[in-house]
Each structure stands twice: as C-alpha cells, then as structure tokens.
Design brief:
Helicase_IV_N; 3'-5' DNA helicase activity; 6-stranded parallel β-sheet; 21 strands; helicase; Rossmann fold; binds adenosine-5'-triphosphate; hydrolase; elongated; alpha/beta; 751 residues; P-loop_NTPase
C-alpha cells in the first residue's frame, strides 16, 4: 500500500519525503533526494493528523526523533493509517512473546543470583548490572514502548528496581546472608569480647578479593580486622557446609596481619589479646619493614638481621643523640657547623663550650635528629619508588613526559596559589636555597655515616633498602605471594614504598584476599596527604569499575557530642574526606537484633581546654574518680614539652597507668584519659611549620594547600584517643590558635 503527497501538498509542505509505502515490518519513506526505511522495531509511536487542508503521518522514533510525511489527501491518509495500525499491532503481538521471554529470562537470572545462599561478590553484581543494560538494549522494540504492554510492565518494574537500587539490593542480600551466618554460628561469635555491629560483621564475613574499610577514630576498624582473622581460621576448624566454598580452609600460615609501624602493631597485638583466640595470637603480624625483611630472607641466602634501632623509637633517639654528642666532642668542625646552624636556623641560645651536653639542647635534639635523618635515609629509595610510579603512570595513561611534568607543575602552582590564599607564610613556600641544602647535607653526613656503620656492624639492612630489594624480589617472574589473606591496619600511614610492595604482592597473588583499613584524618606522617585516600581506593580496587570501599557505621570511643566537635575540627580542611557525624544507633534497625544488642559503649564525654598551670590540680581530681589502672596518655608535639614534674611524680598516683607518646606516634593508641601539652604560640609552638630545614623543604612533597593541615591531623588524633576525657593544656598567655577554635566548637573551658 502506498500513500503519496499531492502535487500542491508537495509544493506547500516543502518536505523531503513525498511518499510512504507499507512494508511487512516497517514503512519506506521516499522523496526526490532520499529514501528511508523505518522498521517497526525503531518506532515508538505514530499518529495521523489533519492539518488545515492536508493530512500528515508522523513517526516518533527512539530518543525523540520524529519523521513525518505531509501534504497527503485526508481520506487516503486515514485509509493508509488504518492499515498501518493493523500491521503494527500484528507485528507487536508477535514480538511481545519474544520480548516477554527475554525479560523473563533476565528475571530468572536475577532470582538465581539473589536466591544464592552465599556472599554475592561485587564482580557478580557488576556482571548483573551489565546484563541488565544489555537486556534493554537488545529488546526487539524501543524501551519506551514497554509501558504499552501489561505483561511486560510487571517484569520491567522488577528489573528497574534492580537497575536503580541494585547497590542497595546487593548490600541487602549480603547483609541478610551475614545475619544468617551470625545466627548459625552464634556460639562462635559469642566468644568475641564484643558483639560486633552489623557494619563490622559485614567486614568480617565479606568475601571480596579486595576491600578498603574506612571509619573514623574509634569506629572499630582494628577490632573488625582481628575478628575477621578469627573468623577465617574458624572456618578451617569447621569446613562449613552452609557456606559456599569460596574460601578453601585456611591455615594460620595463610594469613598475614599488617600494621604501619611499631605503635600500630602494638595496638593490634593488644586488641588480638582481648579476643583470647590462641590461633589468632599466633598469626604473623608485620610492619612493612618486617615484611620486606621476611621476603628478603626467603629469597636470599645472605645472613641478614633486623636492625635493632628500627622498632624502638626511644632507643633510636637515644642512640642518635649520643652519636651526635660524640661527633660534636670528637670533631671540632662538626661541632662548629652545628653551633652555627642551630643558632642561625633555630635562634637557639647556644652557650660557649660543650653546648651539645647542655640538657636544654640535648633534650630537644633526639626527636629532631630522628626526623631529619629519616628524610635522608629514604631519599634514594623514595626517588626510585617515585620513578617507578611515574613509569607505571606513563604506561597506563601513555602521557608524554612533558604533559605529565606540566600537569605536576600546574598542580604545584595551584597549590601554591591556594596556600597563599590561606595565608601560609612565604618562607614556607619558597624553594629551598640550594647552597643551604648542600650545607645541611654536610651537617648530617657524619651522622648518616655512623648510622650506616651501625647497620653494617649488625649485619642488618635499613628500611628503605629492605623495601626496595623486597620490591625487586616480588617482581621476579617466579615469585608467588605466600599468603591467601592479607589484612592491613592503619593503611593511611603506609609509605609509598610499602604500598608499592603490597601492590606487588597483590599482583602476584592467585585468588588472594586483601583487606585495608584506613582513616585519612589519622595520617600522621609529614608529607603524606589526605588526597592519597583516592590513591588508596584505587589501590584497593582490582578493576577500575569496582567500588570496594565500605564505611563502618558506629563510634565506640567518642560520644556523639565529642564526635561532632572533633569532626567539625578536622572537616575544616576541605581536602579531608568529609566525616559525617555518626552516632551509636541503639534502636532496632532493619538489620535485625544486632543493633539492639550492642554493648553499652564507652564514651568520651568531654574535651576540656585549660591553662597548663592547672595540671596538678586536674590530675589530683582525676585520681579521685578514675577507676584503678586507668590508662592516662600524656602527649605533646615533643615529649620534653610534658612538664618534668609530672614524669617524676608518677609515684604520686600509683593506681594510674601513664603512657607518654608524641603526637606523631599516636597511631591506634587508646587511653581512658588524655592530657595534651605544649599548646602554645612561642618556642616549640603548636601548630608549627614542620618543614623548618632546607633539606626538609627539598626532600618532602610540597606543603598541603590548607594551613596547618598536618598539625590539624595530629591534634585530631590526640583528641580522639581517650574513651572518657581529654584535657588540652595550653599556655595561659599565648595559647595555641587551635584552643580558641575548639572552644568555639564546644570544648569546655576551665579557667
Ligand atoms: N562492637 C563493639 N562493641 C563495643 N566496643 C567495641 C566494638 N568494636 C570496637 N570496640 C571498642 O571500641 C574502641 C575502638 O576500637 P578500635 O581500636 O578497633 O577502633 P579503630 O577504628 O581501629 O580506632 P582508631 O582508628 O582510633 O585506631 C576499642 O576500645 C574497642 O575495644
């Protein structure tokens, strides 16, 4: 059947098509310049309209495209339209059967997946999401037509639910499964020191090959990590039938626990002891240095020892101070250089004669020597790691080196501009004077040599060398990662080298599982930035489309008020991942009975600001109400800022346990009460510019754009250690600028 525009119609319509012919499953439109076939499966709808004089047939195609034929005689148009409707309906009826089967098949596939009595790994979910997209793309007519068919609408509704709420449904499925497992194995979970909350259970039971768990201070990350280790080993005991055998039974040797450094390792040790699980206590727990050392031992026949000074900060600082003092007393030029440098750079008052033995100087040197030397020790290895990373990036993005450098330079410029906007003083931003860098290198060279000699005398290896060599060992073709599960705590503190090593282990792991726990607000290492959290997320992924980040939902250390205060404080820096104010949810939730059963949380109930002269008074009061053996943390930027009188008066409050730690060693530390010292704006002021030497400016990454970003994190960590109360002790005349700010957020002021 053919419908043609009339001569006058053609002339008035000025349209590309003058004729339409009905085909078996479509229509053909033709005009003087083009002919176009429109198949029924392209058409969303069509209509027949009557204009003032002429008829018109219009077809709506997908994506709201319209094609029409104008200028046809009205009666003929109606006849053609009626026949078109008949053909279209017959075709649609026939095709509906296929479409229904197509959608039903997809529903069956979803049901099969969601009815699985097991953890649904994310890769399955991603596969399903892709399948769903394809389902709609491969329908025999445009998706917009689904609503016309009642039979399809219902199927479509079910599919759409999965398409739009897939993530929630996926989590729901896994949560429900987790609840079931928790009930089935209630006897086992009751052995834990706490009843885990649903988000912790999720982390414990999940079976993803790689997951990054984020959570703020006290959200129970380390606890969940140890609970997971215990659960993994328990499966070995049971060889459960009810679980899909995604995990083969595990032996303790298959699991490696990791923490960023000695303080966080000690904390993890403490937590695992509370679990009272002999096998968990036997699990390998290593710092990156120990991991590198272990890998080297496995792959090399040389005699090698762990360097004695690396795991004990106190001993290391003591050794460095003694070595520095020895160098000063035996090498006059060395002592002269240091005398000039300390008096010029720091404006310290240096006495004539043996200044290095002066208690006032000596007390300030240990921590500083350790910090300065560390930058030099890691210099070469960091450069190697950075080069490796740049090569990796380049091969990934096939960026020209010029473009890469240009973008880095523009980042630096941008950061500098921001820094200026934030009133960061110019001296902190100026490129270090090269002559000064060389002079400082000379200053440290004898100390660095003494350090290397000591390592040699112990037949040991330094951390950066160990990490670089381990990286090479892991990179060898034959290397296979020996652990099936690597559970990593305080991941935010892992150095670039350590992270590269883990990356290597991941690449060489056949079907291994990696769990990373991190909090960007707790980055204490100078030079590590919170922007790195995005890198951590990238590293935790196996494939780019995966989203393996999971957040813990509760807070066990801080009360909602304190949580709000500390979060407001850290969130001032827009580069930190914004922390929502979480509260303990004691009400029944849709996740069942777990939330109700949460143990009564221990809550920090106050942060006080007080002039430091009140300290003895406060301690007396504290001793009156603190339970016996309470842990009392004393912390400051430098330990010597803690008044001596307190250290010597430990015997005055014998029933309290005192811990002394500088801010940068507070990873994972937990106390009942915390006293923070040195909050002043003079001398060793806080916050301070930590890059106070030319070498530091030269070797450390560029400063973060937000003013005092690093010190803000130190303060945040110090304030979030205590389960009960924190006192921020400040100078009465010149308090730290943070004090005023915190008072504004609700810290309680003691006059
Ligand atoms: N489910 C729970 N019920 C009760 N208390 C818990 C629970 N989980 C953890 N805790 C307690 O909460 C405190 C904080 O836990 P944990 O150290 O695991 O948190 P975290 O997130 O690792 O903290 P941080 O990041 O500050 O190191 C600890 O005292 C721990 O014993």
């Amino acid at each position: 059947m053919i419908l043609k525009a009339t001569l006058l119609g053609k002339h008035l319509a000025q349209h590309p098509f003058h004729q339409i012919q009905l085909l078996d499953a479509g229509v053909e439109l033709s005009g003087p310049k083009e002919t176009r076939i429109i198949a029924f499966n392209q058409i969303v709808s069509f209509s027949c309209k009557r204009g003032l004089i002429w008829g018109e047939i219009e077809f709506i195609l997908s994506h709201e495209n319209a094609i029409s034929l104008h200028g046809t005689e009205w009666q003929a148009t109606v006849q053609f339209y009626d026949q078109l409707v008949i053909n279209w309906q017959e075709w649609s009826k026939d095709i509906l059967v296929h479409a229904t089967k197509h959608l039903e098949k997809q529903i069956l596939s979803i049901n099969a997946l969601s009815n699985r009595d097991c953890w649904l790994p994310q890769k399955e979910f991603i596969r399903l999401a892709k399948e769903l997209d394809n389902t709609y793309e491969s329908l025999p007519f445009p998706e917009e037509r689904i609503g016309e068919f009642k039979a399809l609408s219902e199927l479509d509704y079910l599919l759409q639910q999965w398409q739009h709420e897939g993530i929630e449904r996926w989590h729901e499925h896994n949560n429900e499964w987790a609840i079931k497992i928790r009930h089935t194995h209630a006897n086992f979970f009751e052995r834990f020191p706490f009843i885990l909350d649903p988000s912790q259970f999720y982390v414990v039971l999940q079976q993803e090959p790689s997951m990054l768990v984020l959570g703020s201070a006290g959200s129970g990350k380390s606890t969940a990590l140890i609970a997971r280790a215990s659960w993994l080993l328990y499966q070995h005991e049971l060889a459960l039938d009810t679980l899909q055998p995604l995990f083969l039974p595990l032996l303790p040797d298959d699991i490696l626990l990791m923490a960023a450094d000695s303080p966080s390792k000690q904390r993890l040790e403490l937590i695992r002891r509370t679990f009272n699980d002999r096998t968990v206590n036997q699990l390998d727990l290593k710092t990156p240095y120990e991991l590198a050392f272990y890998l080297l031992k496995q792959t090399s026949k040389k005699t090698l020892n762990l360097f004695s000074l690396l795991n004990d900060t106190e001993e290391r600082e003591k050794w460095l101070l003694q070595t520095w003092q020895h160098l000063c007393s035996t090498k006059k030029p060395f002592a002269k250089l240091w005398r000039n440098w300390l008096s010029n750079q720091y404006e310290w008052e240096i006495i004539a004669g043996d200044f290095w033995l002066e208690p006032d100087i000596a007390i300030r040197m240990g921590a500083r020597l350790d910090r300065w030397l560390k930058h030099l020790r890691f210099e070469k290895a960091n450069k190697t790691a950075n080069d490796a990373l740049i090569v990796l990036e380049k091969s990934k993005q096939s960026h020209s080196s010029a473009a890469h450098e240009a973008s880095q330079q523009s980042d630096i410029n941008e950061k500098n501009e921001l820094a200026v906007a934030n009133d960061i003083p110019d001296h902190a931003l100026l490129a270090p004077d090269e002559a000064q860098v060389i002079a400082e290198r000379k200053l440290f060279a004898p100390l660095l040599k003494a350090w290397k000699d000591k390592i040699k005398s112990e037949q040991a290896i330094d951390e950066p060398d160990a990490l670089i060599q381990a990286l090479k060992a892991v990179g060898r073709a034959k290397f296979v990662t020996p652990w099936r599960h690597i559970l990593i705590d305080t991941y935010q503190e892992f150095s670039l080298l350590a992270r590269l090593l883990l990356k290597g282990l991941k690449e060489k792991s056949a079907g291994g599982h990696f769990l990373y726990c991190a909090d960007d607000a707790q980055i204490l290492t100078v030079g590590q930035t919170p922007a790195g959290i995005d890198e951590l997320i990238e590293e935790a992924k196996l494939k780019p489309e995966e989203n393996v980040v999971y957040e813990l939902e509760h807070d066990y250390r801080l009360s909602p008020d304190i949580r709000k205060l500390t979060d407001t404080f850290i969130n001032q820096n827009p580069n930190q991942q914004i922390k929502p104010y979480l509260v303990i949810d004691d009400k029944p939730s849709k996740l069942g009975a777990f939330a109700v059963k949460l143990m009564a949380p221990k809550h920090q109930n106050a942060i006080y600001t007080s002039p430091d002269i009140n300290v003895l008074d406060l301690l007396d009061k504290l001793s009156g109400f603190a339970p016996k053996s309470s842990q009392v943390l004393f912390t400051a930027q430098y330990l010597y800022q803690i008044p001596e009188i307190i250290i010597s008066l430990k015997s005055r409050w014998p029933h309290l346990n005192f811990i002394f730690k500088p801010f940068n060693q507070l990873h994972g530390v937990e106390s009942d009460f915390t006293f923070v010292f040195g909050l002043q704006q003079f001398g060793d002021s806080f916050p301070a510019f930590i890059r106070d030497t030319a070498l530091e400016k030269h070797l450390l990454p560029i400063m973060e754009s937000f003013l005092d970003a690093e010190m803000r994190r130190w303060m945040y960590v110090a304030m979030t250690r205590a389960k009960y109360s924190t006192w921020l002790l400040h100078d009465i005349e010149k308090p730290s600028i943070f004090i005023n700010e915190l008072n504004g957020y609700g810290a309680k002021q003691i006059k």
